[in-house]
Specification:
With 283 residues, the chain is mainly α.
């Protein structure tokens, strides 16, 4: 998965958990890998449904197990792949949940107190909304990947695919302020090649940034559930609702398939209603 398929670290971790979950199931049934039948697999999927595991998670789980058992078959560890005829559950893609422009403005208001860590958090939020980065891309962003003069960042995304994303003046000013006054105070003489550092001189975890964005949302009086992906969704929907073309948004988001980006074209219902009302002869 790492050397040949070049899967992302999070995908590998998810596949690892899925395979482990299935092997534990086999232990409870006292079955070996050679004893797996279609009945065993359907019993496993039944257990997944009983645990209220979503269609999307089950689809990924089947994909992981198909890949794993295909490998075992290819390396002659098993005579066949018991998952080869198992079809994944189909589900329609969920519509992304983003924030309104008014909510984003509240979330991106400068912090009332100017501490080094708050200034760092503010710069991260500004850059996230300005570029639509994935949370992993944000917390692992290298110092050298941010070109302040041209306002572009160079990102190594899923599958080690590189892309360039522009960012706006508010993000530039927040990052420059953080680099000039806050980052040196946080590092306290340590050296780091990560742009957004912690007191340990390293990049923060994805979980820590999730906590930061939730704290910022509460402070801004936003009651809806907010995650790093909320700002990524908002980035895409706001661009499209203001006239950006789908291909450009796809490139900035780092989607390999444009159909993934097309999900965002169905989100802005209010804008669709206003267009219908304005231009339809019987609107």
């Amino acid at each position: 998965m790492i050397t040949e398929k070049r899967f992302a670290e999070n995908t590998i971790a998810a596949y690892d958990a899925d395979i482990h979950f299935f092997l534990l199931f086999l232990l409870t049934k006292k079955k070996s890998l050679q004893q797996i039948t279609s009945k065993t697999i359907h019993s496993f999927l039944e257990q997944c449904r009983d645990r209220k595991i979503s269609h999307r998670s089950n689809a990924r789980r089947i994909s992981a197990l198909k890949s794993f058992f295909s490998y075992l078959h290819a390396t002659n560890l098993l005579p066949s792949n018991p998952f080869s005829n198992i079809t994944s559950p189909k589900s329609s893609p969920g519509l992304p949940k983003g924030l309104s422009i008014e909510q984003v403005n509240r979330l991106l208001s400068p912090p009332p107190m100017s501490t080094p860590l708050l200034q760092r958090n503010y710069a991260m939020l500004q850059l996230l909304y300005s570029t639509g980065l994935r949370v992993t891309e944000l917390v692992t962003l290298a110092l050298t990947s941010c070109n302040m003069s041209s306002c572009f960042i160079r990102v190594l995304g899923k599958g080690d695919k590189e892309r360039l994303i522009p960012f706006g003046i508010p993000a530039k000013e927040a990052i420059e302020s953080y680099l000039d006054s806050s980052r040196p105070l946080i590092l306290k003489g340590k050296r780091s090649n990560i742009l957004f550092v912690t007191n340990r001189g390293k990049g923060m975890t994805r979980l820590r940034f999730w906590q930061i964005i939730k704290e910022a949302a509460r402070a801004a009086g936003i009651r809806e559930e907010v995650s790093p992906h909320s700002l990524r969704h908002s980035f895409a929907t706001h661009l499209l609702s203001h006239g950006a073309d789908l291909r450009s948004v796809q490139m900035m988001l780092g989607h390999s398939d444009i159909t993934t980006t097309q999900i965002y074209t169905h989100v802005d219902e209010g804008r669709l209603k206003s267009i219908h009302h304005k231009f339809h002869p019987r609107g």
